[in-house]
């Protein structure tokens, strides 16, 4: 099985969105997850990623979205995404 970022993003989003009930959160989580993947794809450093996310979502929304992402990211294969998200939250504080 080869690494397929698009498939993986879709799989992650299915997992993340299963228990999210509002359209706003679904769209925000999807967009936030895509931004996290952009870090790897476009070689963004953590500061650039954080600035992109803050521009898109604002500080309070990004905190809330990030907490949801951490709570919904349960599969071992996504541990890196989970730790990246925790690192971002630490910088937001």
Automatic annotation (TrEMBL):
Signal peptide: none
InterPro entries attached to this UniProt entry: Homeodomain-like_sf, SANT/Myb
Matching SMART domains: SANT
Domain Myb-like: 38-87
UniProt xrefs under Gene3D superfamilies: Homeodomain-like
Name by which UniProt lists this protein: SANT/Myb domain
């Amino acid at each position: 099985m080869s690494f397929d970022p698009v498939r993986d993003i879709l799989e992650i989003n299915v997992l993340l969105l299963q228990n999210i009930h509002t359209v706003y959160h679904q769209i925000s989580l999807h967009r936030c997850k895509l931004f996290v993947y952009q870090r790897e794809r476009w070689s963004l450093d953590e500061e650039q990623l954080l600035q992109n996310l803050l521009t898109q979502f604002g500080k309070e929304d990004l905190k809330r979205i990030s907490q949801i992402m951490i709570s919904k990211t349960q599969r071992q294969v996504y541990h890196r995404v989970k730790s990246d998200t925790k690192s971002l939250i630490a910088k937001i504080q």
